[in-house]
Amino acid sequence: MSRDKYLHDLKAHNKEIYTIKWSPLGQTLASASFDATVRLWDVERGQCLRTLSKHLEPVYSVGFSPDGRYLASGSFDRSVYIWETNSGKLVQSYTGGPQDGGIFEVCWNTRGDKVGASASDGTVIVLDVRHLKNRLL
Fold first, then answer.
1. Tally of domains within the chain
2. For residue 63, what are the domain limits?
3. Residue 60 lies in a domain
4. Rounded to two decimals, what is the model's pTM?
5. pLDDT digits over 13-45, tens only?
6. Is 32 exposed, middle or buried (0-12, 13-18, 19+ CB in 10 A)?
7. Where does each WD repeat begin and end (predicted)?
């Protein structure tokens, strides 16, 4: 029976981390923090690959697209951002969540063309990332 092996402490955020998610291929870890940033980590090397920092308020959720090429992030600033994971470039954005509160969870569908986002006012927002059209449910 093998023993678990400690790899690294990944330290870079300056406030608490709200959530972490693995990329589909398991090489990268994304962390979302109350410092309003998302960080992408190379877990094997213990290094921060890039910091994604367009959000204005705490980031509550992140989710990788099924192919791992994109990352969605949802924040208390009422926005959902879609980032390119290789470059860290912000490629799409949606702002328009609830007036009081924010986006608490984001997730991709299996085809990778839609992102769901749950909001603090009890709504679910569905974004078509091919054209970034939103539908309120």
1. 1
2. 17-136
3. yes
4. 0.88
5. 778 989 999 999 989 999 999 999 999 999 888
6. buried
7. 10-51, 52-93
